[in-house]
Amino acid sequence: MTKPLTNVQVELLNTFAYQLPDDELQELKQTLTLFFARRIRKRTDAIWNEKGYTSETMNNWLNEENQ
C-alpha cells in the first residue's frame, strides 16, 4: 500500500521543482542534515534533562560489564 506524501515532502517537491547543480544539491543535503541533527539534539537534551542524566551517567553506561 502506498502512503500519501507528508506535508514536508509536498513542500519540498513544490519548492524544488527544478534541477539544482550538484554543488547546490550537496549544500541542500547538508542543510537538511543539520536541521534534523538539531531536532534530534534538542529532543535528546530534553530527555536527558527530564531524567536527570549527566556525563557521569554516560560514563557508567560505557563502563558497564554487560556490554
Description:
This protein is an all-alpha fold and 67 residues long. The protein has a domain at 38-62. It contains 3 helices and no strands. The protein has helices spanning 7-15, 22-51, 55-62. The longest helix has 30 residues, at 22-51. The chain is elongated, with a radius of gyration of 19 Å.
Draw up the topology in text.
Layout: H1 7-15, H2 22-51, H3 55-62
| SSE succession | HHH
CA distance, first residue to last residue: 39 Å
Strand content: under 5%
Low-confidence stretches: none
Q: Largest sheet, if any?
A: none
In DSSP terms (H or I, runs of 4 or more residues), the helix count works out at 3
Helix share, percent: over 70%
Q: Quaternary status of these chains?
A: single chain
The count of DSSP E runs of length 2 or more, i.e. the number of strands, is 0
Structural class: mainly alpha
Mean pLDDT: 92
What is the radius of gyration? 19 Å
Shape: elongated
Task: Give keywords.
3 helices, single chain
Could you write a compact summary of the structure shown?
With 67 residues, the protein is mainly α. It has 3 helices and no strands.
